[in-house]
User: What shape does this take?
Amino acid sequence: MTHKAFVTGWPISHSKSPALHGFWLDRYGIDGTYEAIAVEAENFAEFLSGLKAHGFAGGNITIPHKETAHAMIQNLDPAATDIGAVNTIWFEAHVICGGNTDAYGFAANLDDFAPQWREGKRALVLGAGGAARAIVYAIREAGYEEIRIANRTYERAEKLAADFGDKCQPIKMSDVAGLQSDLDFVVNTTSVGMNGDEGKLPVDVQALPATTIVTDIVYTPLETPLLAAANNKGLRTVDGLGMLLHQAVPGFEKWFGFRPEVDRQLREHVLGLS
Ligand code: ATR
Assistant: This one.
């Protein structure tokens, strides 16, 4: 039997997920399909309820449906519950289940390239949007004692910190410069640096300890201005592409019954896409 999976969003044509999952289906010779399906917000509920009848094993949910899926699906994993968004769905005994693999993908990418990130105690998260929620979840799970959240719109940082508990504290962008000398870990979750975006981040890498790990979830370009500055200082850096690759692993395993590998060949395949 051919196992069928999908990614849905609006728009969806830019998604790299079909190429990513298609690469794995080919590599492992699996009888499966993974297609992009454009669904408008008003049709999402109907789409979700018809999945089983259409023979889907599950799929990925992306913008703008992640929060709607969280509201509609009863059986959620702990990450989806706390993050408030679903990016992966599957069926267990005919019951639809929702998960969020973004936090897993973020952590697995760091585990690959800078596993010592788990020993850190104090982190700075730049940004407080949807991506930041998954990342704060991952950093909290890694056992950090203090997670400082700085965002252009301070109220969003306050809300995110309040949602994720007493290890988190909102800080003003203008206070970042004075709160850097004890950081173990810095992550940019904003779109600053993406495709030449000229926005400015408040981090002064010169003021970071020599052991600080710096990562960015932006992967176009792979070396963002933040990572370039950190590399110049000789800090350990991790680019954002691996998060995209690793977040796809749990879904693929659930739908197709095989846990795929993230490796250099996959990275190059995805990097080669326009
Ligand atoms: P995502 O789901 O990808 O996180 P989002 O919810 O739109 O997307 O959040 C984008 C993040 O990038 C926000 O933290 C946003 O800051 P605001 O909450 O103040 O909008 C941040 N961001 C985007 N452009 C920025 C810029 N030029 N300077 C600083 N922060 C920026």
User: Anything to note?
Assistant: The mean pLDDT is 97.
